[in-house]
Amino acid sequence: MASVIDPSAIIKPGAIIGKDCKIGPFCIVGSNVVLGDRVELVSNVVIDGKTSIGDDSIVYPFAVLGVMSQDLKWQDETTMTGLRIGKRCKIREYVTIHSGTPASDGTEIGDDCQIMVNAHVGHDCKIGNGVVMSNLVQVAGHVEIEDYAILSGGVMVLQFVRIGRNAFISGMSGVGDDVLPYAIYEGANGARATYRTINRVGLMRHGFTNEDMHAIHNVYCSVFGGCDSDTSTVSDKLNKIRREVKNNKYAMDAIDFIENRSKRGIRTANDKH
Predict the structure, then answer these.
(1) For residue 228, what pLDDT band results from cuts at 50, 70 and 90?
(2) Which end of the chain is more exposed for a tag (fewer CB within 10 A), N or C?
(3) Are the beta carbons of 101 and 121 closer than 8 angstroms?
(4) How does pLDDT run across 157-190, given as a tens digit for each residue?
(5) pTM over 0.90
(6) What DSSP string runs through the chain?
(7) 250 class by beta-carbon count within 10 Å (0-12 exposed, 13-18 middle, 19+ buried)
(8) 3 φ, ψ to 5°?
(9) How far apart are CA 46 and CA 91, in angstroms?
(10) How far is CA 170 from each of CA 36, 139, 167, 193, 239, rounded to the nearest angstrom?
(11) CATH code for 202-261?
């Protein structure tokens, strides 16, 4: 079946349009854009730069994707490294996602993501699969968000932050430090988000067992306080708890995040880490 393109849409020469696409009124598709099969641009969508969008994704009115970033070091269009959006994504109204710069191989959005009204994803970000960004989420450049994280409305994320998988960040929080996987973070009225507890409801929805959640909780409780009065170093605490949870892949992943994937450090309620 041929794609349906509204007469008022502008498809620049060189753009590649997949099968069964729908491109609505007043959309503009740049010459280096690649749309997968069954992609829908509802209306008034601008897609430019070296941008690709995976099969079965939908982009709502007034979204702007793949244009030059706001990084003042790179203001030459020839240096843009592009934007890649996965399959089955929903990009809602007024979302902006910028192209990558030579600092990386491009901005990436995984499969099955939902990015809601007025959200922004900056240059060189790496967003995993199944990530949800609610209305007005603002993500600065070079941020990494792992699979199935949820950012509630109005969350603001500082550049170079890493957010662990299956994390949940409450609304209106400022995120300036790395966010542990499988955890709930909270920061009221724009305050710096801090660790509260594990994301029990979210983990249950993704099939985690009670044993999984207990093991993850033991890691965080042991390392960041609350389980006992142990005053040893973080490294010593990690070595100790590793022996106890070594057979649980999620607890071991939490330890790996603390030891290897976190770069900006981890903020907890007592603000000691």
Answers:
(1) low
(2) N
(3) no
(4) 999 999 999 999 999 999 999 999 999 999 876 6
(5) yes
(6) ---EE-TT-EE-TT-EE-TT-EE-TT-EE-TT-EE-TT-EE-SS-EE-SSEEE-TT-EE-TT-EEEEPPS-TT---GGG--BEEE-TT-EE-TT-EEEPB-TTSS-EEE-TT-EE-TT-EE-TT-EE-TT-EE-TT-EE-TT-EE-TT-EE-TT-EE-TT-EE-TT-EE-TT-EE-SBB-TTEEEE-GGGPBPEEEEE-HHHHHHTT--HHHHHHHHHHHHHHHSSS----S-HHHHHHHHHHHHTT-HHHHHHHHIIIII-SS-B-BTT---
(7) buried
(8) -70, 155
(9) 12
(10) 34, 15, 10, 8, 31
(11) 1.20.1180
Q: Name the residue with tokens 């993850």.
A: 216
Residue 1, classified by CB atoms within 10 Å of its CB into exposed (0-12), middle (13-18) or buried (19+), is exposed
Q: Compute the distance between CA of residue 172 and CA of residue 80 in angstroms, rounded to an integer.
A: 31
- Packed helices 249-256 and 210-224: angle between N→C axes, nearest 10 degrees: 30
Residues with catalytic annotation? Answer: 123-124, 141
CATH 2.60.120.10 matches 4-142 = no
- Both tokens of 120, joined, read 């922004």
> Pseudo-torsion of CA 154, 159, 160, 164, nearest 10°?
0
Helices 234-245, 210-224: axis angle to 10 degrees equals 160
